[in-house]
Amino acid sequence: GAQGIGRAFVQALLGKGAKVALLDGNSEARQERKAALDEQFEEQRTVFIQCDVTDQEQLKGAFKKVIEHFGRLDIVVNNAGVNNEKDWESTIQINLTSVIRGTYLGLEYMRKGNGGDGGVIINISSLAGLMPAAFQPVYCATKHGVIGFTRSIAVTANMENYGVRLNTICPGFVNTPILQSIDKEENMGQYYSYKDEIKNMMQFYGVMDPSIIAEGLITIIEDDTLNGEVMKITASQGIHFQQYGQTPFTSSKR
């Protein structure tokens, strides 16, 4: 939440009057961001929690701290993401496993059958979750996984009357620090020599400001009819939704 798309999300949510807990592993960025936000908004409206999302106990503890600080949980945004084809196991842990774990923790606190008041969970995927991404196969796989998981759990939430909506946002190229990873051999590994091809794709499709992704987030939060949707955001078409065929058969609630 201290940089990139997460930074824009925080700004947008605070602008709507929300109280926001930010989880980030970068302590320096976190401290700088907290100081800047305290100048703009009331200090008690934000809490920063140091957290490695791949550490199960840290993530559990972070959710607990949020409840202790604010007294409730209404919105969860699973946004942590990296591009690292060399250390691909870590990419899976951050981009997919932590999203699944964050979703289940959010449901644990928010679903009505568990004493919660309902809410909304937004998982951040990518256009690479909807199409092949040459030279980024593991990144692409994780983003496909986020979409499949979120759409599936959204059907379950509806059938079981959790009172929680779950949706996915799939941005195209966004001007965030993750784009810089394309220039680094320690991130791209065997695909490092193809960095110029990826940059050509970025130029072709266009690079967006994170603020438009935040607009999409607010749309999902405020429209309580959206559940299981996949929002696409591109430089050419702006905010729109992926169209799917009929949802597979689901039995009625037991």
TrEMBL record:
PROSITE patterns: ADH_SHORT. SUPFAM superfamilies: NAD(P)-binding Rossmann-fold domains. Transmembrane segments: none annotated. GO terms for cellular component: cytoplasm. Its EC number is 1.1.1.141, 1.1.1.232. The keyword Oxidoreductase applies. It catalyses: resolvin D1 + NAD(+) = 8-oxoresolvin D1 + NADH + H(+); resolvin D2 + NAD(+) = 7-oxoresolvin D2 + NADH + H(+); lipoxin A4 + NAD(+) = 15-oxo-(5S,6R)-dihydroxy-(7E,9E,11Z,13E)-eicosatetraenoate + NADH + H(+); resolvin E1 + NAD(+) = 18-oxo-resolvin E1 + NADH + H(+). One of its GO terms (biological process) is prostaglandin metabolic process. One of its GO terms (molecular function) is 15-hydroxyprostaglandin dehydrogenase (NAD+) activity. Catalyzes the NAD-dependent dehydrogenation (oxidation) of a broad array of hydroxylated polyunsaturated fatty acids (mainly eicosanoids and docosanoids, including prostaglandins, lipoxins and resolvins), yielding their corresponding keto (oxo) metabolites. Decreases the levels of the pro-proliferative prostaglandins such as prostaglandin E2 (whose activity is increased in cancer because of an increase in the expression of cyclooxygenase 2) and generates oxo-fatty acid products that can profoundly influence cell function by abrogating pro-inflammatory cytokine expression. PANTHER family: 15-HYDROXYPROSTAGLANDIN DEHYDROGENASE [NAD(+)]. Belongs to the short-chain dehydrogenases/reductases (SDR) family. This is 15-hydroxyprostaglandin dehydrogenase [NAD(+)]. It comes from Chloroceryle aenea.
